[in-house]
Write a structure and sequence with these properties.
By secondary structure, the chain is of the alpha+beta class. It is 39% helix and 18% strand. The strands form seven sheets. A five-stranded mixed sheet has the order 2-11-10-3-9. Strands 14-13-12-15-16 form a five-stranded antiparallel sheet. It has a four-stranded antiparallel sheet with strand order 5-4-7-8. It is globular and about 95 Å long.
């Protein structure tokens, strides 16, 4: 694929193909960001694509396309609003990504003007992550508001802009014609409150404040915009009948005097060293500003010099945006909370001062386990230079794709004097049971089982999740409410299927509770009854047995064909499972003895002897062998299944559930005649002609196995736009990779 070839190695034909690919990708990204307000790739990915396009055009100038992304700004306006032609084009900015880029920027300007490098003054201001807006005033009255659109033509959003409190309707002492430009944005606090209202109303929450602000401003109904907490920062101007000032800083000050909100962090800097220093100051405050920024903008302060410098095709020569590192941010760790999962795992969660990382507002991040907090890795080695994590610390947070945010580093220079090392709990914070950490396990687990409310609720949430029973109208929020309601008393999965019967016999009807009525209750009863017939793999996955994920559940369903066969096999193999448990214990003892004696542990010998000491019948050994012979099933999964079905509480809950079901649908016979039969496939990136779930179902229907990760066992990777580390790993392993069109062509006749 040409995307993997460096620009310097591209032949002319490959370069032309790559420019066509980049043009399509960037055009789609512009539409997603500027028109749909729903970007599908990060700013860093977008910037990387634009840099690659520019590098190829520099090397092959004759191949530059008429629709070159380097000649475009934003995206064409949608048809839902009237169009506004900008008297002065609204351009984008060039980007700097490191200190050297900033120095080069100053050097190129100094050379253009014929002055010494480092002799010019610049303003430095936060780059607000919002939606660009232009406001036209005539004789001090707001006449028109327009979005940037494609730079030449934007959307008329005047009625909506009038609802924003920080946009003045009239001005005193302004030039006869004044076009003020700035950014519409939403604060973190207002964004959180808006999303809470969205969820309460059953509407989809916004991904981040930028999307929320853009979507709110571009409502066809201004009353909706009025209900949204939007704000406006002014930082530039377009058409003018008279100058605002002689300098950039003076003009910004004048806008503030006219009644506009201007950013208080804007500063006048003498040369690159002061610009970079202010950049670092703003970056350090990023997490506490209360609104999103994604960099710092530098502008030549002298407006007469700006005029001399002029413009390139899409960017001014006299300004540049110094972007923050991609998907990284520093913020304050306000607290460490412990969450208890459905398998009893105690998971530490960092509660953070909200900060935007990779286009998403992050207020929580995983801390993995107690070793990670203490600065130790999986093998006891130092991580982060051995720095532990404490409440009150300033921490660096990162995201990779859609992965849960993580804490990467700690700034010890900002550690509060009263910060103390975090002590990981040895008791479950929910039920008070002992929280134990087995030898070799990185996780501490609550031993309370189903008496632990946290485990019980999480198991129920898992049971109704989309890949499990997926009962319409019964999601995590409803399950939690039903569990806590003593009259409804939904404590285990079987209780869901007896709820209608118990509700009919009770005076405390579900229909009398907030959020429920006769119609919604009847709809819920129908949805529950519809799930009395369930596919075997969904049932197995829904039980929430440790180590049995969605793919493993499908493997087990295909291998055994029925729940009764699986249950009988696991129960028959129980003595072998206990033998392996005894062998694990023997290995642990041998490790300790060997360590004390200063010799290597004889693990294989000890394990073999421990298993031989357990007298196991032939039928148990055969059942165990059949179990671990299932595709994707090893001793770890087999032990987990055995423990679950041997536990009286868990097996009793499973039996009561099975009694409520009418049909457990066996898996369909796998196809063997398709081009992907028997192959392991991974999907990554954005699929545009079908959903990920549909693609997965289609692949499995053709006899393929769909995996979530790339390994040496992967046969095919299907990569859409935005493919990241999986595509890189597939290339390293030499795995065949197709785009979505190639995938659909492959299975077209299957």
């Amino acid at each position: 694929m040409t995307a993997e070839i460096s620009v310097g190695d591209l032949a002319e034909k490959e370069a032309a193909q790559e420019l066509a690919r980049l043009s399509a990708l960037l055009a789609r990204a512009n539409q997603d960001y500027h028109r749909a307000d729903a970007p599908k790739i990060s700013d860093a990915e977008y910037d990387a694509l634009k840099r690659r396009n520019a590098e190829i055009e520099d090397r092959f100038p004759t191949l530059k396309r008429d629709d070159s992304p380097s000649e475009q700004v934003g995206a064409a306006p949608t048809s839902g609003f009237g169009k506004v032609s900008h008297v002065v084009r609204m351009l984008s900015l060039g980007n700097a990504f490191n200190d050297e880029d900033v120095t080069e920027f100053d050097g190129s300007i100094s050379k253009f003007l014929g002055v010494g490098a480092g002799k010019l003054a610049y303003t430095a201001e936060p780059k607000i992550d919002g939606l660009s807006l232009s406001l036209r005033y005539e004789n001090g009255i707001l006449l028109q508001a327009a979005t940037r659109g494609d730079g030449a033509t934007g959307e008329n959003v005047t009625a909506n802009a009038r609802t924003i409190s920080t946009i003045p309707q009239t001005l005193l002492g302004a030039p006869e014609i004044l076009e003020v430009r700035g950014e519409v944005y939403m604060s973190h606090a207002d964004f959180d409150a808006l999303n809470a209202r969205q969820i309460e109303a059953g509407d989809k929450p916004f991904a981040n404040p930028r999307n929320a602000a853009a979507g709110s401003l571009r409502q066809l109904d201004p009353t909706i915009t009025k209900s949204r907490p939007l704000e406006f920062f002014a930082y530039a101007w377009g058409d003018l009948s008279a100058p605002l000032a002689e300098t950039q800083s003076g003009a910004i000050e004048r806008l503030g005097e006219l009644g506009f909100q201007v950013n208080p962090l804007t500063k006048l800097c003498d040369g690159p060293s002061e610009m970079i220093a202010h950049y670092k100051t703003i970056e350090a405050q990023r997490a506490t500003l209360g609104y999103d920024i994604d960099g710092v903008v530098y502008k030549v302060n002298d407006l007469s010099l700006q005029e001399r410098l002029g413009f390139r095709s899409t960017t001014p020569r006299w300004a540049i945006a110094h972007k923050f590192p991609a998907e990284l941010a520093w913020t304050r760790l306000e607290a460490i909370d412990i969450q208890v999962g459905r398998t009893g795992a105690l998971s530490p969660v960092a509660r953070l001062a909200p900060v935007t990382v990779g286009g998403v507002v992050v207020s929580n991040a995983t801390l993995h386990n107690e070793d990670y907090i203490a600065g130790r890795g999986n093998k006891g080695e130092e991580i982060r230079g051995g720095k532990d994590i404490r409440e009150g610390d300033w921490v660096q947070v990162y995201r990779a794709g859609d992965v849960i945010p993580k804490v990467a580093d700690v700034d010890l220079s900002k550690r509060p004097d009263d910060a103390t090392p975090y002590v990981f709990p040895t008791k479950c914070p929910v039920c008070g049971s002992d929280a134990v950490r087995e030898d070799g396990d990185a996780v501490r687990r609550c031993t309370g089982g189903l008496i632990c409310a946290a485990q019980a609720v999480e198991k129920l949430k898992h049971f109704v999740s989309r890949a499990a029973f997926d009962i319409e109208g019964l999601g995590a929020k409803q399950v939690e409410a039903f569990y806590e309601d003593d009259q409804l008393s939904v404590k285990e999965p079987a209780d869901i299927f007896t709820l209608q019967q118990r509700d009919a016999a009770s005076l405390a009807k579900l229909s009398n509770r907030d959020g429920w009525g006769d119609a919604s209750v009847k709809k819920l009863w129908r949805a529950i009854d519809n799930k009395r017939e369930i596919e075997l793999h969904r049932l197995i996955f829904a039980l929430g047995i440790r180590h049995v994920g969605e793919v493993t559940a499908q493997d087990l369903a295909r291998h055994f064909g029925s729940w009764d066969a699986l249950q009988r096999n696991v129960e028959t193999a129980r003595p072998v499972a206990l033998a392996h448990r005894a062998a694990d214990d023997a290995e642990r003892v041998e490790r300790d003895v060997a360590a004390q004696a200063g010799r290597k542990p004889r693990l294989s010998e000890v394990r073999k002897a421990a298993i031989e000491r357990c007298e196991v019948a032939l039928d148990a050994d055969a059942a165990w062998s059949f179990l671990i012979d299932a595709d994707g099933i090893g001793a770890t999964v087999a032990l987990s299944l055995s423990d679950a079905l041997a536990n009286p509480d868990e097996s009793g809950a499973i039996t009561r559930l099975i009694d409520q079901l009418t049909t457990i649908i066996p898996p369909k016979a796998q196809r063997t005649d398709s081009p992907v039969a028997g192959k392991t496939i991974v999907f990554t990136g954005t699929l545009e002609r079908t959903t990920r779930a549909e693609a997965k179902a289609r692949a499995e229907g053709l006899g393929a196995k769909v995996s979530g990760s790339v390994s040496s066992k992967t046969d095919l990777l299907v990569a859409g736009p935005g493919a990241g580390s999986k595509a890189t790993k597939a290339a390293e392993l030499g795995i065949e990779t197709l785009d979505e069109d190639g995938w659909l062509a492959l299975i077209a006749d299957a």
